[in-house]
Amino acid sequence: MMQQTDLAGSFTLPGTSLTVNRMGYGAMQLAGPEVYGPPRDIDAAIAVLREAVDAGVNHIDTSDYYGPHVTNQIIKQALHPYRDGLVIVTKLGARRGTDKSWIPALSRQELTGGVHDNLRNLGLDRLDVVNLRVGGFTEPTEGSIEEPLTVLAELKRQGLIRHIGLSNVSPNQFAEAQNVSEVVCVENFYNVAHRNDDAFIDDLAAKGIAYVPFFPLGGFTPLQSSALDAVAASMQVTPMQVALAWLLQRSANILLIPGTSSLKHLRENLQAAKLQIPAKALAELDAISSSQRVVSNAKIERKES
Q1: Tens digit of pLDDT for each residue in 90-132?
Q2: Could you tell me the sign of the dihedral formed by the alpha carbons of 89, 120, 38, 94, in that order?
Q3: Which one from 25, 36, 66, 211 is the annotated catalytic residue?
Q4: What residue numbers bound the domain in which 203 lies?
Q5: Other C-beta atoms within 10 Å of 302: how many?
Q6: 18 within domain boundaries
Q7: Three-class SS state of 3
Q8: Residue 207 is part of a domain; what is its CATH number?
Q9: How do residues 277-291 score in pLDDT, each as one tens digit?
Q10: Are 231 and 285 in contact (CB under 8 A)?
Q11: Can you give the pTM of this predicted structure?
């Protein structure tokens, strides 16, 4: 069992009494293959959750559409009754088809039912934070989010939700959301190679709002992966540890939720909170982002020609 460790400092969600360590845990990988059905080893999943909390993790990111229902039920089995200070953040906005597909679920009935499913499967009377998940698989899709967000705001007034966040949204959608409800966090696709949200992160930081990146190693090209591997080798750590440490150094409002079903990988992820990337290596990592922008600009030019 890991001893409790410093997890990159803490962050208090704006307008709340919820203070979390910046290194958290994402529960998606606790479900079976393709995030569907039960895991191969439920006891191992329970062990990962318990060790994470014992090590100081007090921010768990989950959703009742993982499984569906599976990850929340495992969280309850492993950790209920929950320790004081443990913040569980869940997501609404999708459901799973019997073919393992991901189906948008943004109607009033689906959102209300989703809140009650989360409450039941987590064993809670009220959800700490609920993120409204919209957009595509990794990127936002522009359009109004007022209608589904209004439903969550009503559920908040009913006392079923304490605070509201957003997932996979654009800056325009965030601005629209602030007219409907206070927003405490934004969870979007971002990593050292995919940095479309750079300005968005800085804007949220100025407002004291948390930014939670998902897919810290998602969408890398082979060339970018090689560059990350080289930095990791120079520091004698893993590429995942470098990617996580870079995010923590990127901005103080960034909270991490790396997921794993492996105790070994959990320990490696938590150790990333102690890494300090030297200036030379940071410059090499920034070059990864520059190469991504060159590729993206070339694609745009081809489309326009």
Answers
A1: 999 999 999 999 999 999 999 999 999 999 999 999 999 999 9
A2: negative
A3: 66
A4: 10-220+251-276
A5: 8
A6: yes
A7: coil
A8: 3.20.20.100
A9: 999 999 999 999 865
A10: yes
A11: 0.94
